Every structure is written in structure tokens, then in C-alpha cells.
Amino acid sequence: MTFKALLVEKDEEGKTRAGVQEIGEDLLPEGGVTVAVEYSTVNYKDGLCIGPGGGLVRNYPHVPGIDLAGTVETSDDERYRPGDKVVLTGWRVGEAHWGGYAQKARVRADWLVPLPDGLDTRAAMAVGTAGFTAMLAVMALEDHGIKDGPVLVTGAAGGVGSVATAILTALGHEVAAVTGRPETEDYLRGLGASRIVAREELAETVKRPLEAEIWGGSVDAVGGAMLARVLGQMKYGASVAAVGLAGGAGLPATVIPFLLRGVNLLGIDSVMQPFDNRVRAWQRIASDLPMDKLEAMIRPATLADLPGLGRDILKGQVQGRVVVDVNA
Ligand code: NDP
Description:
The chain contains nine helices and 15 strands. The protein has helices at residues 44-50, 121-144, 159-170, 185-190, 224-231, 256-261, 275-288, 291-297, 306-314, and strands at residues 2-10, 16-24, 33-41, 67-75, 85-89, 104-107, 113-114, 151-153, 175-179, 195-198, 217-220, 239-242, 264-267, 298-301, 321-325. The model has no long low-confidence stretch (mean pLDDT 96). NADPH dihydro-nicotinamide-adenine-dinucleotide phosphate binds next to helix 1, helix 2 and helix 3.
């Protein structure tokens, strides 16, 4: 039996090349649960793994795709039966293990989550790793208390930012969306953002460690100088859920916002979340994320589109969520 996959191979000079190939099922690892994949998505890490790997890929040839949704075909674990609909994010799938850019994946039962009522496999992947992470970020802000005032979402036109904007506005929060792409304003307002903040407004490095208190909470997908600046604008006791580093891994900040304003910096990791949290987050997604807004974020794609899309996401040029139909 063969199936279609985006295979990344490395030549003797260490150069990688990604292309769609028909490969044998015997190449899949033994044991575990075989999933007939229906959809996957394009995340920042996928961009890295489609290319030279950026230190994430353990072995070549490699099938990237850090998330997937599909139907169980065979299972060595009594929790899953053929026909069950499942979703998978994290656990280094698509990095250390073959991932979702294929019509079949074989994974450990522990990594799967049963699809909650209200989400089909396409909607689950429109959410994907980015949206799952956005939900974890919102839950972390809620746990620490969202203060009065707008919630700031950075990298708003990207995957995490789009879903965070839609969830927060659906929950009744006023959202200010930071974007470096003015042309996405209508899109972001359609997701519910009531205020658009130009990236340049927050791009200057910190001159004063504390500025006027503006934000009641923040989901930050950008990191770097922008995060440092945002910390000094948080309301007393408010929290920033730090998700990503699209704008840099450094943090040129001072401790003053933590000491004098009791600001909380909450790190969000979607990769190693325990099963119960995963189930809770997916159920919250099914109940709190309006499907019409999710639909507005989707850009459809096929396996053949992935090499180009991988390059685009690394340049910050992808809007919303790319949903890859692996059978198209
Ligand atoms: P996207 O590329 O879809 O979105 C990132 C957005 O950040 C871009 O759309 C752009 O938004 C903005 N951006 C890009 N480059 C810069 C820059 N140099 N300066 C300021 N803003 C910039 O990625 P995702 O939303 O999927 O992921 C966002 C980040 O979160 C990534 O770093 C990713 O690795 C990380 N991540 C972390 C997870 C975790 O578990 N912690 C899980 C998933 C993702 P705009 O055009 O609106 O300005």
C-alpha cells in the first residue's frame, strides 16, 4: 500500500529538497495508531521543517506537519477504534516524528485527542496548532484575571493572532490588534478587533520602563522589542501571555513593570500540554470560537503548495490559517 506525502530529503552536501512523493506504508513506524489524515496546516515551525530544519528535524527523509486531523484506521490502543475522529498537535510530531503532510500518519495514542462535538476535521485544522495555542493563551489570561481595558494581540494577522482576536472578542473583550500590514485592517475588524495598532507604534525600543497603563491583558506572538514595550504599558496586575518570537527571541526589557506594576509574564507552551488540558482547550475552542470567523481565516492549500507556503510563513507573509487538504 502506498500513500502521498510531502517528503523532505537531504543530499550528500547537506542540502534539503521537499517534494510530493508516493511512499510505502512500510516506511511508517511500527505499532501505535494509524490515522488516515484529512487535513493539516502551516505553522511557523513547519516553515522551518520544510526547509533546512533549523535544528528541529531529527532524521531525513522527513515528513513535516506539526498538526493533523483525520480518522483512525487501525489502533493498538483500546482508547481509539477505527472510524474515530482525532486531532493531534505537539509532542514534536512533524519535527522528531513524521507528521501531518501525508495521507497517513502513525502516532502514539497518548498524543491524540478525540475531536470534540461541534468541530469537524477541517475546522479542527483551521484552528490547528496556532489556534490551540491561542486558546491556551486566553485560558492562561483568564486564570490570572483579565483587567478592565482593551486586550492587546500582537502579530494579529498571523495564525495565533487571528484566532486569539476572534476568541477574545467572542468572549466580550475589546481587542486592539497590532499588525505590520495595514491592508489586513478589514480582515482584523471582521474578526472583531475594535482598534488597529500599527506595528511601528510599538517598534521603538524601551526608553521609559513604564508608560501609561493601557492594556488589560495581552496575547503576544511577536516577542522581542515589541514585548518589552508592551510590558511597560500593561495595567496594574495585568498579564501578558507570551506565545511566540516572530519578531525576535531577545527581550530588551527591565524588571520595573514586574516590580512596580505587578505585571505577569505567562509563557505558553503548546507542545507538551497534558491530555486533560488539551481536551479542555479543544472543548473551549468548540464552544467559544465562532465558526463564521474561523471560516474567514481559512486559506485552502494542497501538499504541492507547501514548499512555497513554508517560505511565506517564515517571512511573516501568511494571513490567518492555511488549511492543507492532503487528499486534494
Ligand atoms: P504567523 O507567521 O502566522 O504569524 C506571526 C505574525 O507575527 C505575522 O503574521 C506578523 O503579523 C507578525 N510578525 C512577523 N514578523 C514580525 C516582525 N519581525 N516584527 C513584528 N511582527 C512580526 O505565525 P503563527 O501565528 O503561527 O505563530 C506566531 C509565533 O508563535 C511564532 O513565533 C511561532 O513559532 C509561535 N508559536 C508558539 C507556540 C507555542 O507553543 N508557544 C505554538 C504556535 C506558534 P502582522 O502581519 O499582523 O504584523
